[in-house]
Specification:
Elements: H1 3-24, H2 26-33, H3 37-61, H4 70-89, H5 94-123, H6 128-156, H7 159-180, H8 193-203, H9 206-226, H10 229-235, H11 241-269, H12 271-291, H13 296-328, H14 333-361, H15 367-385
Helix pairs in contact: 1-3, 1-5, 1-6, 1-7, 2-3, 3-5, 3-8, 3-14, 4-5, 4-7, 5-6, 5-14, 6-7, 6-11, 9-12, 9-13, 9-14, 9-15, 11-12, 11-13, 12-13, 12-15, 13-14
Length: 399
């Protein structure tokens, strides 16, 4: 495997930390900035919205910069992410923090869309799947190890050095790309405004949008229950901050396992049935987090299962969207991949908003119930749309 693929992995590790670390630090950040928990949770929302915008739209618009090499495009995305993360670490008020997080999220969305396809091209079709898996391995490691450690350190020291460390990882990735990535040969031909128009049109294809909406609702249900997991565990379950870190470690480990299980299940029984299983699992687990919020043992099991089902959904939902895109927009694979990343991230953003609204209206203990309802909406939409064939595609993780 070329060294540059592992540099992509380092950058993906930083992206994973940036997206999920604030989930475990919402209460700490709220106290530091003198805002309520719902406002602090907006740091998760704005980052995901930045990634949502960047993934499909900027992927399509990169056709306008056909003169740019992939190295130049990736350097710009990592630089944007790093600068945004650094500004977030030194933000003195909520508004600055949210703007910085949105900027960092824009770098996240476009980098993942470009890095995965670049890694696959570098190694050739026979090793493309392995290369993509190595790249997203950084994201998985961030979930399983980096996030719980960061949650612990943020509670013991401060959240600012943690976000600063994320910016440092981004800077290391930038240097690695600058020094270690060779300029690939320029492609022949000209990509003009017509190609851009076709790509942008594909973003708004009704069938693709409905497919992406299933992803949005499934993930929104999960992250309605999970975005404010730290205050739920401390205020309702009555566990310590250290225990919260342990729960997030369990979540991350089961997320990594779930991603593997989801991929194998998708290959074995098909994307439609796999999607039904995982979204049903998310809904049931979220409902359990409402019913058993006061039990530490039950919440430990439920948080683990939420990680399992949430990331088992990635291969199935991604394969489903790409399979549909092959039928309805065969010339816009890159945009379809970007739309898929956007679907996951918009689900995270919507979930964090719904979680905040739930806290502000009926209380933190009801987040699981609301999350279950949202996931069921996604499940109903999925089952209504499952009238056609079963889509299959070779995919890797996304976030």
């Amino acid at each position: 495997m070329p060294l540059i693929v592992y540099i992509f992995t380092l950058s993906a590790f930083a992206l994973g930390l940036a997206e999920f670390v604030p989930i475990g630090l919402t209460d700490v950040m709220a106290q530091s900035l003198d805002v309520n928990i719902e406002q602090a949770g907006s740091a998760v929302t704005l980052y995901a919205l930045g990634a949502t915008f960047a993934a499909p739209v900027l992927t399509a618009l990169t056709a306008l910069t056909a003169g740019w090499s992939r190295k130049q495009a990736m350097l710009v995305t990592v630089l944007v992410f790093t600068v945004g993360s650094l500004l977030a670490a030194i933000a003195t008020n909520l508004s600055t923090l949210l703007i910085a997080r949105f900027v960092a999220g824009m770098g996240h969305g476009l980098f993942l869309a470009v890095a995965s396809s670049t890694a696959a091209r570098l190694v050739g079709p026979k090793k493309a799947g392995s290369a993509v898996a190595v790249v997203f391995g950084g994201f998985t490691i961030a979930m399983a190890i980096g996030v719980p450690i960061s949650t612990y350190l943020g509670g013991v020291i401060s959240w600012r050095p943690v976000l600063g460390a994320i910016a440092a990882f981004g800077a290391l990735g930038f240097l690695g790309l600058l020094l270690g990535m060779k300029e690939p040969p320029k492609q022949q031909g000209h990509i003009g405004a017509d190609s851009v128009g076709q790509a942008l049109k594909a973003i708004f294809h009704p069938t693709l949008l409905v497919a992406a909406l299933v992803t949005v609702l499934g993930y929104a249900g999960s992250f309605t229950a999970y975005t404010y997991i730290a205050p739920l565990l401390t205020d309702v379950t009555h566990v310590s901050g250290t225990t919260v870190s342990i729960f997030m470690l369990i979540y991350g480990v089961l997320a990594a396992i779930g991603n593997v299980i989801g991929g194998k299940m998708t290959d074995r029984i098909g994307v439609d049935r796999s999607s039904v299983i995982v979204i049903s699992g998310i809904a049931l687990v979220a409902l359990g987090m409402w019913a058993f919020a006061s039990s530490a043992l039950a919440m430990g099991v439920l948080v683990a299962l939420l990680g399992l089902f949430t990331f088992a959904a990635v291969p199935a939902l991604q394969a489903r969207l790409i399979g549909i895109a092959e039928q309805h927009a065969p010339h816009a694979h890159g945009v379809a991949a970007g739309l898929n990343i956007a679907g996951f991230n918009f689900g995270i953003a919507l979930g964090s908003v719904l979680g905040g609204v739930t806290i502000g209206t009926v209380g933190v203990s009801y987040m699981g119930m609301v999350g279950a309802v949202v996931s069921v909406l996604g499940l109903v939409l999925l089952m209504v749309r499952n009238r056609g064939g079963d889509y299959r595609a070779v995919v890797g993780p996304a976030a």
